[in-house]
Design goal:
The complex is a heterodimer of chains A (185) and B (592). By secondary structure, chain A is mainly α. Helices cover 82% and strands 0% of the residues of chain A. Chain A is flat. Chain B contains 24 helices and 11 strands. In chain B, strands 1, 2, 3, 4, 5, 6, 7, 8, 9, 10 and 11 form an 11-stranded mixed β-sheet that branches. In chain B, helix 1 crosses helix 4. Chain B starts with a helix and ends with a strand. The chains are: A mainly alpha (185), B alpha/beta (592).
């Protein structure tokens, strides 16, 4: 299944997703192009998304590497990832070159600061949405707040913060699982 | 050269510590870039904003950072660092794991990190916002964007487009600070802003309706019923959009307005191609691939995920007898049978009532073993002894879960009780509690009513299972009845009576009083019914309802037409249409 997808088609699909996934919703767009159109079954797609989110790195390219390999091996992985990245990269480098050439007008500054403000809002919205659905326990809220303080305000190196908080969060979650099992309801 | 190596290493390191997806490393990226004295904070934020204008994964800003530091080679070095290590990792995983979800410990590790991810996201917002959001209009944009995402008003792409428009607009106004301090102007601008949004919404709805009423509606209608939106079809094939204007619009808005310029022929053609592609893949894809989850692997080898009931393959012709639990009675109602008959006129189902004995799960399985039924419906998992019996007959039994439901308990309307804990229920049905006053009710003797003949019944076994086997004696005062209908009638007319039944069968009964249940001996009662009088499916979905039962289709694996009929029946129930009907009936359909 899916093996009959040609390398060229695969590259085209990922390039199209790379060209149209504004706002970084790569998994949603890929679902439309691959699963809804019948190139891939839901199960394998969900497994791929699961892997790409559990492993560090940018989710979009993780997904393209996994699926590219699934369809067409090494070349599939390389071309899918490049296909996903190149349209956006091309657009960005063009804009950057252009902006270096032309003088900074108030309009350009205005656009940038408005977009920056919008992205801050998007990030806040996203944080709120995830926090509401995942931070059920006060301990989890504490861990999230600690992560924010350590990384955002105190600027501690990220590896240090993740390892220390990860250990705390992990051991606490194990404890609470035990507690939940022993005290049903 | 050194800078390039440094860039590569820095971004490779960042990629490897980005535990919750790309955005979480923004604060650390800013810290690294500033401490290397490559960029200032202001530059970083500008580059980040710029990167949001391009499509693709949201970590494209590394190219821009690399480009700013060391031109094109820098962009390549940064990009390679950011994307290659983890991509190689994932490709390797795809190669070695072949199929399957991440192992449990990886998933658990990921879950343990979620609170940190939340903190990191907030930190990212904080980092970007620092020294950037200082004007009033920016605060409005920021709040609006957050609200739009939380309330699902618009997708991120649309939010960015609107922000660009506002950004351009405010640059041409004399003094933004003054204007936004001026209330009337502010109101006008807000109105304009909402007008733009409303225009977007109305326009896309108009397009949709116009297309539906058009001459070429049939393929489109079909497409929409199949879960495709016309927007999606065009979005999937930007090349099909005729000319440059729609393509440009497509690039600008991500989707929407491009449809205006798309030719009808193009849509019809795309839809035809799409359906052929689906049909081909359905054919090519032999059984294995429509199985949606590994957890369900062993019985799902022949399950299909279909939308409409007509799409279910391998539905045999002929008349088939089936039977089993009353708990699945709603699945045998006319609404289901009519739909099945419509989709597959030659697949005739007859329910076989065992007349002399109670129509429960156990009876159904026995009749299935005896060959009286083609397949059966059960409200409890198969037992070891039943598997063993089947083996003696020379075949195996298979159970396919199709839905979840709950066992509801109810009392005579004269008993005014909020709920009972499972411990109290155990006491009542084993005869240790005999008066309602012992559980906080009036001083009336308890009359337990049961359609389960012993503690192994599909409902009683749910809370009596941890009573030692030799002590599994039911209370002597239990009134045995044949089925749920009789139980309801008995409880409604006997003062002090308590009985049970599947949620879907009893929530609409007004002659009895439903009570809440609490796990263990706690007092956190979960009601079987919502205040609107519907089955409390939320409590089934999140597992908080104490007595959850699964409905199974049980079949003999003997390669006969009976087995094919059982599988077909399960697939009909599990098709999207079937799921909708199950939901309407008050079940929680299984999803795999």
């Amino acid at each position: 299944m899916g093996k009959n997808l040609k390398l060229l088609q695969l590259t085209r699909i990922f390039t199209q997703v790379g060209a149209k996934s504004f706002g970084g919703q790569v998994p949603v767009h890929l679902w439309d192009s691959l699963v809804t159109r019948g190139w891939l079954c839901q199960r394998i797609y969900l497994e791929a998304v699961n892997w790409s989110q559990c492993i560090p790195g940018c989710n979009g390219t993780n997904l393209s590497a996994y699926l590219g390999w699934h369809f067409k091996g090494a070349w599939g992985a390389i071309l899918a990832t490049l296909g996903l990245l190149l349209p956006g990269m091309g657009v960005l480098l063009c804009i950057a070159t252009l902006m270096a050439k032309i003088p900074q007008t108030p309009a350009i500054q205005g656009v940038l600061s408005a977009v920056a403000a919008a992205t801050v809002g998007l990030l806040l919205g996203m944080t709120w949405k995830i926090a509401r659905s995942t931070l059920g326990h006060p301990i989890k809220v504490f861990v999230a707040a600690a992560a924010f303080l350590l990384i955002g305000v105190l600027r501690v190196p990220i590896l240090l913060a993740i390892v220390s908080l990860g250990i705390v969060s992990w051991s606490l979650s194990q404890k609470f699982k035990q507690w939940d099992d022993e005290h049903p309801g | 050269m050194n800078t390039l190596v440094d860039l590569f290493l820095t971004f490779a390191y960042l990629a490897l510590v980005s535990v919750g997806g790309g955005v979480t490393i923004l604060p650390e990226m800013e810290r690294q870039v500033v401490s290397h004295q490559w960029l200032t904070h202001q530059d970083f934020v500008e580059i980040f904003a710029l990167s949001q204008l391009a499509p693709g994964p949201n970590m494209l800003l590394v190219f821009l950072i690399g480009y700013r530091i060391a031109s094109f080679p820098g962009a390549i070095a940064a990009g390679l660092g950011m994307f290659t290590p983890t991509s190689c990792l994932l490709a390797g995983l795809a190669h070695f794991t072949k199929e399957g979800h991440p192992p449990k410990w990886v998933a658990q590790f990921h879950t343990a990190l979620i609170p940190i991810t939340v903190g990191l996201l907030a930190a990212a917002a904080w980092t970007i916002g620092q020294g950037m959001i200082d004007e009033f209009y920016q605060i409005i944009i920021c709040g609006g964007a957050a609200l739009a995402i939380i309330k699902n008003w618009a997708n991120p792409a649309l939010v960015i487009v609107l922000a660009v428009m506002i950004g351009v607009g405010q640059a041409f106004l004399p003094d933004t600070a003054q204007i936004f301090a001026d209330i009337p102007t502010l109101i006008i601008l807000t109105l304009l802003f909402s007008l733009v949004i409303a225009l977007f919404v109305v326009l896309s709805k108009k397009i949709r309706n116009a297309l539906l009423q058009d001459a070429f509606a049939p393929p489109l209608k079909q497409a929409m019923e199949g879960g495709f939106s016309p927007l999606m079809i065009v979005r999937d094939r930007p090349t099909a959009a005729k000319g440059t204007i729609p393509l440009l619009l497509l690039l600008l808005t991500g989707q929407s307005l491009a449809l205006l310029w798309t030719s009808r022929a193009a849509i019809t053609r795309i839809w035809a191609e799409t359906t052929t592609a689906i049909a081909q893949s359905l054919q090519a894809e032999s059984n294995g691939c429509r199985v949606p989850s590994t957890a369900a692997k062993d019985y799902l080898t022949y399950l299909q995920v279909c939308n409409a009931m007509q799409d279910v393959l391998n539905v045999p012709k002929g008349q088939f007898f089936y039977g089993g639990t009353m708990g699945a009675a709603a699945l045998r109602s006319n609404s289901f049978l009519k739909e099945i008959r419509l989709a597959h006129p030659d697949f005739q189902l007859r329910y076989l009532d065992p007349m002399s004995i109670p129509p429960d799960s156990t009876t159904g399985i026995r009749m299935l073993l005896n060959g009286e039924l083609s397949f059966s419906e059960s409200q409890r998992p198969l037992r070891a002894i039943e598997y063993q019996q089947a083996q003696e007959w020379g075949f195996t039994l298979k159970q396919i879960p199709v839905a979840k439901t709950g066992a509801a308990f109810y009392t005579h309307p004269g008993i005014n009780l909020l709920g009972l804990s499972l411990e109290q229920l155990k006491g009542i049905y084993t005869g240790k509690i005999t008066n309602w006053s012992e559980v906080g009710g009036p001083d009336i003797a308890i009359v337990p009513v049961s359609q389960d003949i012993d503690a192994n019944g599909s409902t009683l076994s749910l809370f009596l299972q941890d009573v030692p086997r030799n002590k599994q004696k039911l209370a002597g005062n239990i009134q045995h009845v044949r089925d749920t209908t009789a139980a309801v009638r008995k409880v409604a007319t006997t003062p002090g009576a308590i009985g049970f039944g599947t949620q879907v069968l009893v929530v609409h009964q007004h002659s009895i009083r439903l009570i809440g249940l609490a796990k263990g001996s706690s007092r956190q009662f979960i009601q079987p019914m919502t205040t609107e009088g519907q089955v409390n499916r939320a409590a089934l979905a999140n597992g908080s309802y104490p007595l959850i039962q699964q409905i199974f289709v049980v079949l003999r694996q003997d390669g006969t037409l009976d087995e094919v009929a059982g599988v077909a029946y399960a697939n009909l129930l599990l098709s999207n249409k079937g799921k909708t009907l199950m939901e309407k009936a008050g079940y929680l359909p299984m999803t795999f």
